[in-house]
Amino acid sequence: MGRVKRYVPKGFIFDAEEVKENGEAVSQYGIMPIFAGEIKLVDLYKNELPETKELFESKYIQVEIEEDKLEIDKEDMAAMYASYGSWMTNNEEDENYIKGTKDIHSIE
Question: Rounded to an integer, what distance in angstroms lies between the CA atom of residue 52 and that of residue 16?
Fold first, then answer.
Protein backbone atom coordinates (compact mmCIF):
# COMPACT_ATOMS: atom_id res chain seq x y z
CA MET A 1 0.00 0.00 0.00
CA GLY A 2 1.36 3.42 -0.96
CA ARG A 3 1.28 6.70 0.92
CA VAL A 4 -2.02 8.51 1.07
CA LYS A 5 -2.73 12.06 2.07
CA ARG A 6 -4.91 12.57 5.11
CA TYR A 7 -6.25 15.85 6.46
CA VAL A 8 -7.16 16.94 9.98
CA PRO A 9 -8.36 20.24 11.42
CA LYS A 10 -5.46 22.24 12.86
CA GLY A 11 -7.18 22.32 16.24
CA PHE A 12 -6.58 18.58 16.55
CA ILE A 13 -2.82 18.68 16.07
CA PHE A 14 -0.97 18.07 19.33
CA ASP A 15 2.52 18.14 20.72
CA ALA A 16 2.95 15.30 23.20
CA GLU A 17 5.30 14.69 26.10
CA GLU A 18 5.44 12.12 28.86
CA VAL A 19 4.90 13.67 32.29
CA LYS A 20 7.67 12.98 34.84
CA GLU A 21 5.87 14.29 37.97
CA ASN A 22 2.25 14.70 39.07
CA GLY A 23 0.86 18.09 38.18
CA GLU A 24 -1.91 19.91 36.35
CA ALA A 25 -3.01 20.31 32.76
CA VAL A 26 -4.59 23.69 31.95
CA SER A 27 -7.12 24.02 29.15
CA GLN A 28 -9.97 26.26 28.12
CA TYR A 29 -12.24 23.93 30.14
CA GLY A 30 -10.33 24.27 33.40
CA ILE A 31 -7.56 22.57 35.31
CA MET A 32 -7.22 18.78 35.29
CA PRO A 33 -4.85 16.60 37.29
CA ILE A 34 -2.14 14.81 35.34
CA PHE A 35 0.01 12.05 36.76
CA ALA A 36 3.57 10.85 36.23
CA GLY A 37 3.71 8.47 33.28
CA GLU A 38 0.73 10.01 31.51
CA ILE A 39 1.04 11.94 28.26
CA LYS A 40 0.41 15.70 28.18
CA LEU A 41 -1.05 16.77 24.84
CA VAL A 42 -0.80 20.47 23.91
CA ASP A 43 -2.81 21.80 20.99
CA LEU A 44 -2.01 24.83 18.82
CA TYR A 45 -4.06 27.03 21.16
CA LYS A 46 -1.82 25.94 24.09
CA ASN A 47 -4.65 23.92 25.70
CA GLU A 48 -3.29 20.96 27.62
CA LEU A 49 -4.99 17.57 27.80
CA PRO A 50 -3.92 14.60 29.93
CA GLU A 51 -4.04 11.17 28.28
CA THR A 52 -3.04 7.77 29.59
CA LYS A 53 -0.08 6.22 27.83
CA GLU A 54 -2.20 3.25 26.72
CA LEU A 55 -4.91 5.42 25.14
CA PHE A 56 -2.31 7.72 23.59
CA GLU A 57 -0.60 4.78 21.91
CA SER A 58 -3.90 3.38 20.63
CA LYS A 59 -5.53 6.65 19.49
CA TYR A 60 -2.73 8.81 18.04
CA ILE A 61 -0.25 8.50 15.22
CA GLN A 62 2.82 10.63 14.66
CA VAL A 63 2.74 12.93 11.65
CA GLU A 64 5.18 15.40 10.18
CA ILE A 65 3.91 18.88 9.38
CA GLU A 66 5.72 21.92 8.03
CA GLU A 67 6.05 24.53 10.80
CA ASP A 68 4.71 27.40 8.67
CA LYS A 69 1.42 25.51 8.13
CA LEU A 70 0.63 25.44 11.85
CA GLU A 71 -0.35 29.07 12.34
CA ILE A 72 -4.03 29.65 13.03
CA ASP A 73 -5.77 32.68 11.58
CA LYS A 74 -8.53 33.37 14.12
CA GLU A 75 -10.27 35.90 11.87
CA ASP A 76 -10.39 33.39 9.02
CA MET A 77 -11.67 30.67 11.33
CA ALA A 78 -14.36 32.98 12.80
CA ALA A 79 -15.50 33.98 9.30
CA MET A 80 -15.72 30.33 8.30
CA TYR A 81 -17.93 29.47 11.30
CA ALA A 82 -20.08 32.54 10.67
CA SER A 83 -20.63 31.49 7.05
CA TYR A 84 -21.92 28.14 8.31
CA GLY A 85 -24.69 30.06 10.06
CA SER A 86 -26.42 30.90 6.80
CA TRP A 87 -26.74 27.31 5.53
CA MET A 88 -26.25 25.02 8.53
CA THR A 89 -28.81 26.35 10.96
CA ASN A 90 -32.51 25.87 10.80
CA ASN A 91 -33.54 28.70 13.08
CA GLU A 92 -32.66 32.28 13.86
CA GLU A 93 -31.42 31.51 17.39
CA ASP A 94 -28.66 29.19 16.13
CA GLU A 95 -27.63 31.63 13.40
CA ASN A 96 -27.39 34.51 15.91
CA TYR A 97 -25.26 32.36 18.24
CA ILE A 98 -22.79 31.47 15.48
CA LYS A 99 -22.53 35.06 14.22
CA GLY A 100 -22.17 36.29 17.83
CA THR A 101 -19.28 33.88 18.37
CA LYS A 102 -17.54 35.39 15.33
CA ASP A 103 -18.00 38.89 16.78
CA ILE A 104 -16.56 37.84 20.14
CA HIS A 105 -13.44 36.34 18.56
CA SER A 106 -13.02 39.33 16.23
CA ILE A 107 -12.38 41.71 19.14
CA GLU A 108 -9.44 39.76 20.61
Answer: 12
State how far the Cα of 80 lies from the Cα of 75, in Å rounded to an integer.
Answer: 9
pLDDT tens-digit map of 25-67: 998 889 999 999 999 999 888 899 999 999 999 888 887 777 6
Which of 29, 90, 85 lies closest to 100 in space, CA to CA? 85
Nearest partner of 39 among 63, 22, 11, 16, judged by Cα? 16
**Predicted pLDDT of residue 89:** 52
User: 33 with 22: CB under 8 angstroms?
Assistant: yes
Q: What span, in angstroms and rounded, lies between the C-alpha atoms of 4 and 78?
A: 30
pTM of the model: 0.57
Cα dist from 78 to 24, 37, 99, whole Å: 30, 37, 9
